Amino acid sequence: MKEFQVKDFDMTAKRPSLNSVIAQRKRLAQQQAEQDALLQQDNYTETEAKLMEEASSMSIVDHLDELRIRLVVAIVAIIIGTLGAYYYVEDILQILVAPAGKLYYTKPTEAFFTYMKISLVAGCIISSPIWFYQLWAFIIPALSKGEKKVTFMVVPTAVTLFVVGVLFSYYLVLPMAIQFFIGFGTDELQPLFSIGQYIDFVIAFILPFGITFELPLILIALGVIGILSSERLRQYRKMFILLAFIIGAAISPTPDMLSQTMIAGPMILLYEISYGVLRYIVKV
To answer: Alpha-carbon dihedral of residues 172, 173, 178, 181, nearest 10 degrees?
Structure first.
């Protein structure tokens, strides 16, 4: 029996046949058509499709790098908005102090830091569309079709409800609160508001209203994605009324019952509106 010997074989690369090339191109074309059909079925825009395609090919490090870039863009937008608001800070200040009238400052740096505080808050509000978009662009690739539809409603509705809450607080609730506290003054005890303390009071008073007015959006969004229902809202109504007064006491800048009621009352009303929308419009 002969010993097996390993020999070198020269094998030249064989060119693919015409049929195999045509079949491969058909497969690629079919895959692209299926991908396009899926995007069209989910109603993704060109921007969303691009974001999802980029996200699918990114590693964890790439996602962290993208998050860092979006945070930098958001911070730069807030800084630019703050600088722009500082240019008009005196006009903004006149609007804020209108319910109280003439104010004073008792420390050399109080007026300056008050101006900076007003500019920063106004800058965050002015630049909100930019940092809202950065947040949306970062999370949209991870959302499902139903969740994606909710995000289209969330961003503009959230800004609108926040502005409505701030305006409601400024024009209706804040003047009543200021007059209520001024009413404690007597001939021997005259109210003398410091600008720093007054602006802190106004910001702590109107911002909770803006956040509170987001309640219907949160509840309706939870109902749309199937986490909440109108029946559950009906069951938890009494518990929420108690919780509303507890939250009002927690976020109110003053311990009086009037401020707590002014915060709890709109929360209860918005809760009932959410219940009506989920039951009669969304029907869940």
So the answer is: 140
